[in-house]
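Researcher: Next entry: Putative acyltransferase 3 (Mycobacterium intracellulare 1956).
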Amino acid sequence: MDRVNEGQWTHIGDPTFDAYLNGELERALTIAGSTGVRVVVATVPYSRGGEKPDGRLYPEDQPDRVNLWNTMLRKTVSHHPNVAILDLNKKLCPDGVYTAKVDGIKVRSDGVHLTPEGVKWLTPWLEESLR
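Model: Predicted structure:
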């Protein structure tokens, strides 16, 4: 999603904003793991919140931006041995693109949030992943 940072509109993919995001992520992981506990973060899944009137995706739904964030997340996590990643993107988008259905189950109805059926389907995976 586009953001105002230091008075300017920007987004992931802009080197200055990427440095800011990476710094914030580094700080958050350092603080969360400061007592030595295991920290788990999740990748961001592709989403489809809606389309512009011309049919194009809104910036926050563009796969390239999701990929940039998930790459940054993985790189930053690699410096923190007590931090693990749950690949939520791979779980919800197994073919590498947005989908509303996985394993025959409608997991998202609005393009972003899980349906009750999606929660029921995802919960065992989450529980097992967090053990």
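Model: Note for the record: The chain has a mean pLDDT of 93.
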